[in-house]
Amino acid sequence: MEIEMLDAPEVREETTPIQQTSIALVQSALVEFDTVAAGLADLKARFGNVIYDVGTTAGMAAAKAARLEIRGPRYAVDKVLKATKEPLNAIKKELDDRAGQITAALLEIETPIHEQIKAEEDRKDAEKAERERVAAAQKLVIDNAMTWIRNHAVQAVGKSAADIKELVTSLETMEVTLETFADRAGEAEQCRLMTLEVLSGLHAAVSAQEEAAAQVKAERIRLEQERKEQSAAAKAAEEEAARAAAEAKATAKAIADAHQARLDEQRRAFMKEQAEARAAIAAQEAEIALQRKELEQKPDQPSAERSSSDIENVVDILAANGGDVGYITVTGPSDADVIFTAARAVSLEYGLTMGEAIHRLAAVESWTQIEGATA
């Protein structure tokens, strides 16, 4: 708002009765004040910093006299001030009233003009404010657009190459116009180009990283497939080895079982032969015992004759089994006892029947040769 300087009112040289009265009152009061001020130095010299012995009658009287002498001028100043201010206050009131009347009359004339001026000034202020608002709004729009352009680089951080390519396309298709950016169009275009350069470099770097990552992933998948195939082959080999081991074990068990069966069969056969041999031996022992009993029941004969008879009996047994008995002699135990003992020993040692043992003994060609060799 412009302030218009008004010309100061013209000052008249002649004084009015009010002015004359006011001046006279002020001058009279100043004279009284000067008179009192002139005596201040004397009062200060006489009474300043004086210590009175107010504890005594004389000292108290001197102190009161000094106070009274000092109070006199002070009371006089108060009286002059009061006497001067009362008429001056009346003059001031009259001045205020007259000034108010004149001011009201002047405002009655001035106010319509002032309102016209103020209305125009308010209109200009409103237009200025609107221009500033529009400029601020336009600046905000441009600032937001510039921020939107710059934010493309921020948004690209951590994104894939495809996402960055979309950001690049967004800036490439953007049009920088004077309608949108006004006098900042050049700045906006430079910002767009710089951001595109950053995005292009970032897109190339991310594309290279993704390609390398894809190669690494493909290699990892290949190695994993090879590992699975090797694992499957190893598992198949283990299963084949286990199957072969199981078959070998089954074969070995079958062989062992067959061998054990043969051994069991042989053992049963051997036990059967043993049982038959023992039965044969028992039968032969019973027969020999019977023969021995019959021999013992015969009348006593010479030893040589009895021995011959016994030999004949055993010889008959041997002959009945096809043996050669030409070598038997009678010395010590009877020949029958010797032959029986030998046959039983051979039967037990080789699992033969008594008959087979006696037949085997009888098949020996020469007992004298064996005896000689043994000796």
What does this structure look like?
The protein is mainly α and 375 residues long. It folds into three domains: 17-140; 142-226, no CATH class; 298-374, no CATH class. The protein contains ten helices and no strands. The N and C termini lie far apart (168 Å).
Task: Give me a quick take on this structure.
The chain is mainly alpha-helical.
Helix-strand pattern, N to C?
HHHHHHHHHH
Terminal Cα separation, in Å? Answer: 168 Å
Task: Count up the domains.
Answer: 3
Biggest β-sheet strands, sense, barrel: none
DSSP helix fraction: over 70%
Average pLDDT: 78
Radius of gyration, Cα only, in angstroms? Answer: 81 Å
Shape: elongated
Q: What is the overall number of helices?
A: 10
The count of β-strands is 0
Structural classification: mainly alpha
Q: Strand percentage, roughly?
A: under 5%
Catalogue the unreliable spans.
1-6, 300-311, 321-330, 371-375
